[in-house]
Amino acid sequence: MFRSHGMEYGYFDNKLEVWPSRINFTPTFAHHCELVLPRSSPLASIISSMKLSINSNGPTSYQVIANQTKCPAGLNVQEFMGLISLFSGKARRWPQILNELGSSNLNFGSETTTLLISSLALQAGPSAGEDEHLGVIHKILRDESFCNRLLDQLRWRLESISLNWRETHSMETIITLVLRVAELGNFRNQQASELLQKAREVALAWIAALRQEAETAKDVKASQRCSKYALWAALLCRRTFALYVDSLKVLDAVALQTFLECSVALQDNMPNDPVGLTGILKRAIIRDVKMASRLQGILRQSVEKYPTGLIPCISTIWPNIQHDPKSKFNTPKFLSDLKDDCWIEIKIEFPACNAVQFIHIHLLRGHFLVMGQPIGRLSAVYRESVTLKTLFGNQSLLTYPSHLTGMSHLLAVSPNGHQIHVGLRDGKVVVRARFRDKMLEFIPAETFYSKTHFDIPFSLINNCVHWLDLKTGILEIRQQPTIWYSKPSNWSLNVNTRKAQRRTVTLINPQSKIFQAITNIFSNFEHPPHITVFQPESRPLSVELRRLELSFTVNRRGWLESSQLRAEINDNRMYLQVFVFFQSGSADLNFLQRMLARGTDSARNLSSQK
């Protein structure tokens, strides 16, 4: 016989000490999505003390004014009141955001403001009934006039920061709000898409500017700072593609090129240990990985539809490649025999040097490999060489494998279109530069002189860089700082004929009798290597003493004539007497004129002749 014992069974939560069946409120995940601010933020302590939450209705306008005395150090009163006002009511959230966008109360470049506005804009919020799927918070995005004003303010903000790549937090806020309007707004989806395109172009321009800044960075700290901002710019640029996640539309050729460029920039600037990242940057990277995974199918379709879109991307990432006019790109193809089917292979042929290189790009993660090797840095043997310091100073140089015979590295930089290859020959650093159809080799300055001998005057050695055309045998002498520019005013030395010219001027060979006869006159005054003698085509023979800022020409009587001294000189002994005194540093031009005027048979003062 069975009898009812009258007991009713139920679950009891030992941790919370409650009966779930007796709870009279709706379960929620809101407490898992609370706003988390960095401890250094001045707003963190205020949120805790005032018990503010993005899930609560927040303070009223009277309470905001009443609490302005609690403004913490590091914030002014207007910014403090603006931040607190953002918590004021769920239905007023978007109007309050628009109000702050139009004012100057908040610092949109701060991490605190970005975290707060992003959290408020992304929260789903409570329901507004069965007929309103956007809920209490976002139903205002159905209002066309409100969306118009919001996009206008965001457009103005974007234009104001377009040239400042340090405004990454402002850009993060702008993209977040534009994406919400594009996803939830019924009237301004097209305008929001155009604004996202503008933000994408700005972020891509930041990447290019930061790449140039990093190439010219003089120290490690400056390079690391540029790398961090470039990482942010790449993440922001890729985030503008979030609209394609739930769309069946493939990327066009330009959009595909942009996505790959920012993906490569993201990978190049990713820290060695991304696990150690914290705060908003860590969240941005996690969000980016999730988005890229969802875009995989669309990206693959885009590459298959626009395979040539990868060619301009490679030329932008690796500018050196476009300076070889004869290089040939084969059609990109996916590597299907790998577990990861996101790898793309591109074959490049170099007919001029009978070489081939393979480039591999990862569609999602942005790995960029040349002959299976990523972008790298030069070893200490190269970094500490005088040759590279002469050409690039202390600049941080990135490299790819070189396709030239005898060269090991190809620099990522291409100053004025020069494709720089680096290698070792007999233990010494060798630098070659391909410029259009020329192959130039850097010749070290010490090649032209020794302790007892010199081949060319020091005026053509000091502060100069020498490039030898391996095809024509012509050595071009370029002066600092224009060492990457070929100009008609540069001296050119034909190694085969041993003749140096500059336009119509011919350099006198330092080993010739004419040069030695002239330098004998200055033997006790200036060292021969510092004397330059040249013969213009339509003017007399000229002598230049650059260190003393003096020049002489041979006049009709065969005497040396100086325009600076306004005198002509013939007698060597008197000449030496004058200039030995001048060498002591106590003479001036008037004194020299008087000294030269004493020998009337051998010198004439030019001013007296006039």
Query: What is the terminal-to-terminal distance?
Result: 148 Å
Rg value: 36 Å
Helical stretch count? 20
User: What is the quaternary state of this protein?
Assistant: single chain
- Principal-axes geometry comes out as elongated
Percent strand equals 15-25%
What's the number of extended β-strand segments?
22
Percent helix among the residues? 25-40%
Mean pLDDT across the residues is: 84
List key phrases describing it.
610 residues, alpha+beta, 16-stranded antiparallel beta sheet, 22 strands, 6-stranded antiparallel beta sheet, 20 helices, elongated
Blueprint (SSEs and pairs):
Elements: H1 42-50, H2 61-66, H3 77-85, H4 93-101, H5 111-122, H6 135-138, H7 144-161, H8 168-184, H9 189-215, H10 220-239, H11 253-268, H12 279-294, H13 296-305, H14 310-317, E1 328-329, E2 333-334, E3 343-350, E4 355-362, E5 368-370, E6 373-374, E7 376-377, H15 380-383, H16 386-392, E8 398-401, E9 409-411, E10 419-425, E11 428-435, E12 438-443, E13 464-469, E14 474-479, E15 491-494, E16 499-502, E17 505-507, H17 513-521, E18 532-536, E19 542-545, E20 550-554, E21 560-562, E22 567-569, H18 572-583, H19 589-598, H20 606-609
Antiparallel strand pairs: 1-3, 2-3, 3-4, 4-5, 5-6, 7-8, 8-9, 9-10, 10-11, 11-12, 12-13, 13-14, 14-15, 15-16, 16-17, 17-18, 18-19, 19-20, 20-21, 21-22
